[in-house]
Amino acid sequence: MASLSVSEAEAPSLDIEKEPETPYEPRYIDVGINLTDMMYQGFYRGRKVHEADLDNVISRGQAIGCKMLMVTGSDYKHSIEAVDLASKYPGFIFATVGVHPCCATALVTSGGGVPNLRSALKPVEELVLRGKTQGTVTAFGEIGLDYDRFALSDQDSQLRVFEEQLRIAERVDLPLFLHSRAAEEDFNRLLFAANLPRKGLVHSFTGTLEEMKTLVEAGYDIGINGCSLKTEENLAVVKEIPLERLQIETDGPWCEIRGTHASAKYLKSMPAYLAEGVPKDVKKERFQLGMRVKGRNEPCAIAGVAWVISQVKGCSFEEVCESSWDNSMKMFRFDEAALLQEQWRASNLELIVEEGHGQNE
């Protein structure tokens, strides 16, 4: 598969590790997956190319060993959709709620400018608090700064929206799901100045060794996906991330491991059983239900991320999977959230039954 192995045209013939007699049965939590993106509905750049296959994408993730998914909310609309998915897949899907830095200018503009920013973000805060109570929301984000994408959102808007959302974070008491790209100085300045009750995860990390160490020392975890494994410099940073501060993600439909990435060479030795049952990928124009789409990342690729990390760090695959599992469970408290979801569903069912009896009397 494109996200687990290099294509046949690119990869030389290498011996693949044989399945051990008693193989470790991996379990993953994909803490960063954009399942609300329209690619999973078959749309690319606004054009419908194939039928929706979101349910298949989710099923493939489950089949590979994903026990939980945390779906990213990038703005108010997508946050609502993420929460809806969490309600549809209780105990398996959880949501983040927030406004991505690339959506900051749109929020400021639609909300009537900077003076009205607090009012513009009020629905976001209300959604976070409601989802926290119901167990569907386990993190506040994706929030942060992205200075590589001023074409999408200007610097001042990003700074204003990030700062205001950090104020919300002080009130909602949830771990943060953070984005930092080429903005280390401003990102750290605002983040470290906030009076946060919880820390969080800096996801899709591509920063320097020094940046990573600063964040880890400040109590933040580091999220790794294919984009975090692109260059030799990236791999050198990943090698030094303490296992107790590491979490894994795919960030699909983006951030796959590509054949041109420095990490691709490690995928050639990945045991075949770790990708057992994962179908081949096809170009989107040749889509068939049940196949993966070439170039579109999804949760079933997380095995490749974990395998590469183990090879780079020189530790066992099991260590990477179990450490990242423990770190994600500790930070985002998925067990507690799943219990809240169950209680919320039970109370709503009782209410529906009571209303039904009342109407029949």
From TrEMBL:
Pfam families: TatD_DNase. One of its GO terms (molecular function) is metal ion binding. InterPro entries: DNase_TatD-rel_CS (IPR018228), Metal_Hydrolase (IPR032466), TatD-like (IPR001130), TatD-type_Hydrolase (IPR050891). One of its GO terms (cellular component) is cytosol. One of its GO terms (biological process) is cellular response to oxidative stress. This is Uncharacterized protein. It comes from Dactylellina haptotyla (strain CBS 200.50) (Nematode-trapping fungus). Belongs to the metallo-dependent hydrolases superfamily. TatD-type hydrolase family. CDD domains: TatD_DNAse. Keywords: Hydrolase, Metal-binding, Nuclease.
